[in-house]
Amino acid sequence: MPPTEGYAVTLPTAPGTHAPPQVVIVTPTGTFGPDGRPVYADESGTLLVQVTAAGVAEPLAGCPGAHVCLHAVPMP
């Protein structure tokens, strides 16, 4: 998958909170993960993900949260 300008990644909230999911914009860091895919980060640099061809953002080790599979939408 060629790099994009960024992705909107949906972060679910804790079960039972009835809060809407949070959407975070991630942009390319210029680095690549262990499998050669580009790494994307949020503005603070705490959320690091790689995005699959199927539009799934996979957080890298050390990222906050317990989610391993997040919805990602390409940004124009």
Characterization of this structure:
InterPro entries: DUF6296. With 76 residues, the chain is an all-beta fold. It has one domain. It contains no helices and six strands. Strands 1-2-3-4-5-6 form a six-stranded antiparallel beta barrel. Strand 4 (48-51) and strand 5 (56-59) form a beta hairpin.
Brief overview:
Residues 1-22 are annotated as: Disordered. With 76 residues, the chain is an all-beta fold.
E-strand count: 6
Summed up, the helix count is: 0
- Terminal CA distance reads 15 Å
N-to-C SSE string, H for helix and E for strand:
EEEEEE
Calculate Rg over CA atoms.
12 Å
What does the average pLDDT come to?
Answer: 85
Helix content: under 10%
How are the strands ordered across the major sheet? Answer: 1-2-3-4-5-6
Work out the count of structural domains. Answer: 1
Low-confidence stretches: none
Pfam families: DUF6296
Region (Disordered): 1-22
InterPro entries: DUF6296
Task: Quickly list its features.
six-stranded antiparallel barrel, 6 strands, DUF6296, mainly beta
Secondary structure layout plus pairing:
Layout: E1 7-11, E2 22-32, E3 38-41, E4 48-51, E5 56-59, E6 70-74
Antiparallel strand pairs: 1-2, 1-6, 2-3, 3-4, 4-5, 5-6
